[in-house]
Amino acid sequence: MRSKSEAMIAMNLYVQKIPYRYECELKLGSITLFPDFTIRHPETGEIFYWEHFGMMDKSEYVKNASDKISLYMKYGIYPNDKLLVSYETQKQPLSTEQIQRLLQFHFDCQFQ
Predict the structure, then answer these.
(1) Helices within 1-112 (DSSP H only)
(2) pLDDT tens digits for 51-61?
(3) Euclidean distance between CA atoms 80 and 101, whole angstroms
(4) Percent of the chain, pLDDT > 90?
(5) Close Cβ partners of 91 (under 8 Å, ≥ 6 residues apart)
(6) Residue 70: inside a domain, yes or no?
């Protein structure tokens, strides 16, 4: 994992027994991406992608994140559908609660 936040996401996926691969190649037209996580829904087998954008207080990073999301959408992969997206800034780090809310919404996970 490249960051503490990605490690937190991976740990939550593991604990919930949700199969995933880290930075697995994805071809969208002539462009190759490496989503942070490629996730297989444990019940339906559907594929989801998770991108975590961890430096949203840097303007060039924000532009690149926006371009990346636009590329996903161009190929029919939409946020809050097959694309899970999380963000953080230096002052507002990703929390376990944010990760768990995304997992509850997309995979009906239960947390104690």
Answers:
(1) 4-15, 59-74, 96-107
(2) 999 999 999 99
(3) 12
(4) 95
(5) 57
(6) yes
Query: Rounded to two decimals, what is the model's pTM?
Result: 0.95
CA angle 54, 58, 63 (to 5 degrees): 90
Q: Cα 101 to the chain's mean position, in Å?
A: 13
Which residues are paired to 48 by β-bridges?
39
- Residue 37 belongs to some domain of the structure: yes
Residue 9: alpha-carbon gap to chain centroid:
8
19 pLDDT exceeds 90? Answer: yes
Measured on CA atoms in the order 77, 78, 84, 87, is the torsion positive or negative?
A: positive
**Pair of tokens at residue 112:** 């104690």
> Token digits for 21?
């691969």
Residue 72 domain flag:
yes
Structural domain count of the chain: 1
Q: What residue numbers bound the domain in which 66 lies?
A: 4-14+26-105
Q: What is the pLDDT of residues 62-104, one digit of tens each?
A: 999 999 999 999 999 999 999 999 999 999 999 999 999 999 9
Task: Evaluate whether residue 110 is within a structural domain.
Answer: no
